[in-house]
Amino acid sequence: MKKFLAAASLLALTAAGVSVADTAATTATPLASIKAGEPMKLTYEVKASAWALFIPITGKANFRTELKPDTYSIKGKVKTTGLADILVNYDMELAASGYVRDDHLQPYAYVSQNNDGKKNRRVEMTYGASDVAMTANPAFGNLGDPAATPPQKLDASDPLTAFIGHAFIPRQAGSDPCGPPMKIFDGRQLTWLIFENAGLKQVKTDAYRGEAYECHVTMDKVAGYKKGEANKDTLSGIDGPLRMWMAPLPNGAVMPVKIQADTDKIGKVTLQVSKLKFEPLDAE
Questions:
Q1: What's the rounded Cα separation, in Å, for the pair 80 and 83?
Q2: Nearest to 259 by CA among 269, 268, 271
Q3: Which residues, other chains included, contact 81 with Cβ-Cβ below 8 Å and sequence gap of 6+?
Q4: CA-CA distances (angstroms) from residue 169 to 32, 126, 182, 224, 268?
Q5: Which terminus of the chain is less hemmed in, N or C, by CB atoms within 10 Å?
Q6: Distances (CA, A) of 266 to 5, 28, 269, 270
Q7: Which of 197, 278, 175 is nearest to 245 (CA)?
Q8: ∠275-279-283 over CA atoms, to 5°?
């Protein structure tokens, strides 16, 4: 989870050039059109930047998502470049699949392959009726104290589904536009990311210009951590607030367009979308 939480901050979605004028909460998302028989393909790329002394550290993520009336699949690759070891050294290939429901994505299978040159761990998960089956190679030394229970695991989503699916959860009128807690299970660690709306702000990135909700993020380490580690409510390597700016888009999705955090080793890290396409699944 440590490495994926750093990598998962790269999961930011937006529409290039969209300016949001109507920021009222909505109850409709692209899932309604997808369920009605309009499959969609999402293609997006995200970049991160920071500095260690006077040397840049960068990261990038590429994701391909296919959403059909009944099923979805996500494939992605996340990699650091520059002085990666100062921040976090990761080179990960990720995949998730599951079912498209009326108001959420329901996970079925997840695979993560870490190519960091150390453990190179591969994790595979399958969601069943009463538990989430998991295999890891090499195996985890332990599953935490306490370990996540079957009901807790089933109540959460794999990291890819949790982050991407959060954008498509309908926001009811009067509810927090940042959305409900993001419940993440990576095969060992169960983590909740909890959002607090700090108001609408103007945001300008490479791929988005307009209003977005500034969402402050706190972390609840529910299970799967070392004994006593659950009391630390910050992300790995982050000693200051983590902020996400989530833009309410015309299609009903509420998606992060910028993410910023203060780290304990290299200062401020900023992540933003560099490319995104929403298009029919059969488009070339």
A1: 8
A2: 271
A3: 57, 58, 59, 60
A4: 11, 22, 11, 26, 29
A5: C
A6: 17, 40, 8, 11
A7: 197
A8: 115
CB within 8 A of 275, min separation 6: which ones?
Answer: 16, 43, 44, 45, 207
Give the amino acid at 91.
D
204's tokens = 């300008």
Structure tokens at 173: 């009128």
Residue in the structure block whose two tokens are 């494939």: 75
Token representation of residue 143: 């599953």
25, HSE (Cβ side, Cα atoms, 13 Å): 14
Place of tokens 């990576």: 186
